[in-house]
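Hi R.,

As promised, here are both runs. First protein below:
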Amino acid sequence: MSQKLNAAIAVIGIDIGKNSFHLVGHDPRSAIVLRQKWSRGQVETRLANLPPCLIEMEACVGAHHLSRRLQRLGHDARLMPAKHVRPYSKGQKNDFRDADAIAEAVQRPTMKFVATKTADQLDLQALHRVRGRLVNQIRAFLLERGIAVRQGIGSIASF
């Protein structure tokens, strides 16, 4: 990308995939000035070379980590629920159209965003999920033995 292109980017929409990310960049007038596919390893390095801009992603697995990293680079990284992006999709679904819809949706004044979670918040969330699964698994094992236990950890703890 040239320096002239870098200066023109105001908003970037990123469609996050497992191994590759699709990016669409808009200039201040919402014209597309960037449309590229980058590997996971290229994203942070390439965005570090761009002037700070608004970067939007759908809130999904891995988005919170990337959002924190981009904020450290000086970008205004935001996350939004996928259901708020769908109305801005044009035509058949593909990764570049999704990234374009994300870039367009973030510019709406009434758009609602998801707060970027810290690593500690994600760890606590994971702990609660694992705990919930274990409680349900214990209940299932007991039910296989003919012992019915009400839902909740309190029922198992008093058992």
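And here is the second one, sequence first, then its structure tokens:
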Amino acid sequence: MTFTYAYPRPMVTVDIIIIDNTVLSQRILLIKRGHDPFAGCYALPGGFVDEDESLEAAACRELKEETNIAHENLRQFRAFGDKGRDPRGHNVTVVFYGFVNPSETAAMAGDDAAALDWFPLDQLPPLAFDHKKIISLFASEIIQKSGV
């Protein structure tokens, strides 16, 4: 049985924060977007949740597609859904995070990521969407509190 509702629904996406756990100055993995919106800008890896796909599965899939990193132990951080965060319309994203040793991964850009690179958390490039806010909250709530 299928239900259709008369009112609009938001898009649902996942974004993934990947932190280099091998250096004292924490670094984050960012992709350079290959398509609009924000083509050419850096962003967190991520994308749309497919129909009948769990949030966790979507996060693992998007991370693998865009960075070639297989990470099965991602943790959920927070959800973000402020008006205007995505120029395509009302979007709610659920953010996941994980820590990796870059020398043990074969990170490379794929799918709709034109490139990727590691950036110190205190030296981020201009970011797409509300990713600067997301990373800032993550740094203050997870990194600083855990001493990671």
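A quick note on the second one: The domain at 11-146 is CATH 3.90.79.10 (Nucleoside Triphosphate Pyrophosphohydrolase). Let me know what you think.

Best,
J.
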